[in-house]
């Protein structure tokens, strides 16, 4: 089992997430940026379109101690591949310039490198979880799960958007209008 911690726990969810649960509406998120086919997806659509993977993790939260959870959902790299990132897949160095920024409904966000998830590089098994502990996340929203991390700072609950794009040639972040 991989040791991680999570940014949001079920008993400490922000008020906005609690209100969403009460309304019973499904949450969607956008995949956008430097992609040929931007996507808007829900947890149910992820379950229908991609193979499900499973990650058993132990969260080591500073406030609440260790917690065990099982997440299920597709691999992030497979979902992003469907959006057709605007890089030449044959050029490894071109792919390695790309970044992936994931944002959540509570304002939490994280940035990953494409190379972390690319099968030719790190091949990290990051999930877009559609289920947690057997419970569907349709109303709560999908969760980015980084089972290879020992710290849960890159877990993002209630994903609202995923931006994919290249960093500048000099290593600078993308222009302000691109994010």
State the separation between the terminal residues, measured CA to CA. Answer: 35 Å
- From the alpha carbons, calculate the radius of gyration and give it in angstroms: 16 Å
Overall shape? globular
Q: For the residues shown, what is the average pLDDT?
A: 83
What is the strand arrangement across the widest sheet?
1-4-5-9-10
Strand content: 25-35%
Sheet bearing the most strands, described? Answer: 5 strands, mixed
Question: What secondary-structure arrangement, pairings included, does this model have?
Answer:
Elements: E1 2-4, H1 15-23, E2 28-33, E3 39-42, H2 43-49, E4 53-61, E5 65-73, H3 76-82, H4 92-95, E6 98-104, E7 109-113, H5 114-117, E8 127-129, E9 131-132, E10 135-136, E11 143-145, E12 159-166
Parallel strand pairs: 1-4, 2-12
Antiparallel strand pairs: 2-3, 4-5, 5-9, 6-7, 6-12, 8-11, 9-10
Could you describe the 3D structure shown?
The protein has 179 residues and is an alpha+beta fold. It has 5 helices and 12 strands. The strands form 3 sheets. The chain has a 5-stranded mixed beta sheet with strand order 1-4-5-9-10. Strands 3-2-12-6-7 form a 5-stranded mixed beta sheet. It has a two-stranded antiparallel sheet with strand order 8-11. The radius of gyration is 16 Å and the shape is globular.
